[in-house]
Amino acid sequence: MTRFVKSWLGVAATTATLALGGAGAFAQSKEIVFGFQCDRTGPTATVGTVLCPGYQDYIALVNSKGGVEGYKIKVIEIDNEYKVPPAMEAHERYKKEGAVIEGLYGTPQTAALNKKLEEDKMPGTSPGFGTASAADGKRFPYTFPIAASYWSQVGAAVEFVKERLGTLKGKKIAYLFYDNPAGKEPLAILEDLAKSEGFELRTFAVPAPGLEMGAQVLDITGRYKPDFVIAHLFGRSPSVSIKELKGKGYPLSKVVSLVWGSAEADLIAAGGMGVAEGYNTMQFAGVGKDYPVLKDIEAMYKAQGKEPPKEMDSTVYYNRGVFNAAIHVEAVRNAIKAKGGAMPTGEDVKKGMESIKGFTLGGFVPPMELSATDHEGGGWVQIWTVRGGKLVKVKDWFQGYRPVIEKQLAADASKS
Prior knowledge:
The chain is built from 13 helices and 15 strands. By secondary structure, the protein is an alpha/beta fold. It has 2 domains: about 210 residues, 3-Layer(aba) Sandwich (Rossmann fold); about 170 residues, Rossmann fold (3-Layer(aba) Sandwich). A hairpin with a 2-residue loop joins strand 2 and strand 3. The protein is globular and about 65 Å long. It starts with a strand and ends with a helix.
């Protein structure tokens, strides 16, 4: 059974009672509803239990400062347990509650909801996951990746590998991936790049739940012996891959992980930062605590006489929750302004999302611009490496093989 969690955030009550001449009258305060799907109990709960509080805390921060353009935000969070049926139920709930935007969770769930979002004119975001072709706003008018898609991530990974190796021609690359739609999504780009750049590609699928991959890693390290490994795992499987590769003697400096195998929790679960020394991770939002927005959240808690939550220490996933919430708020802000302060519809918020430009949140967000045709924002990522027991940024915002990604988007569109 789907678990529903309602969150009413902000210092003001949603309903105020006014005493007028001894009679009770009620005035509804200005409130706008956001839907937010999560996984706090399913197979990717290691992500959700940190990412989701980041989202909620940013909304609480906005509400503590008066809301967005005079509207307090009410978040309805639903745990979809990384399952498609609860995700579909959640969407129907959001529609009934009048939500103007929806935070999606999970690639299978996003694929199932793409058409519903369009039918119901409710914009949905899938940062760093979902259907890569949804970057094309003409084909997917209400789905917004708003961060590097799996196509863009793997393009950036190959770009990084090329920098490290000097050339790709004649090199061997292993792709270690979770065997589900998300894991398979980057294959088309990898195969294209293998042909154009002249490297040998071999793929190694890890069946769900991704906790057993000894055979795959043995095949990689003992037989294939690649020059580099690109890993695309999530949930609890990234830590398993780090331990297995390390245990088989493969240098982690020759591994780069796509975005869902890149958090502190993954490294700690593998045995600690020391074990993961040299491991290269890909990020689509800022890492660490040295950002004004995070200092504001800490100050909000302290003003309430509370200590900042422990989730803030797991900065990779927590920060991505903040990233997602910040983009939602900015889209709604644009929509309200465009309507002269009136309550926006989902269609208005879609246009507000497509109007985001120059929004970086103090370097926390990449230099992306969204438009009616580009719902991804350019596919920007950073690379962070484990060095001396901490994550260190080694490559600032960049895009990898953008023409190849755009070619694949055009080819995909021609099939529809």
